[in-house]
Amino acid sequence: MNRTILWVVMLVALFAAPASYQSAQAQGYNYAEVLQKSMFFYYVQQSGPLSPNNPVTWRAESAMNDGSDVGHDLTGGWYDAG
Question: What is the pTM for the complete model shown?
Answer without folding.
Answer: 0.52
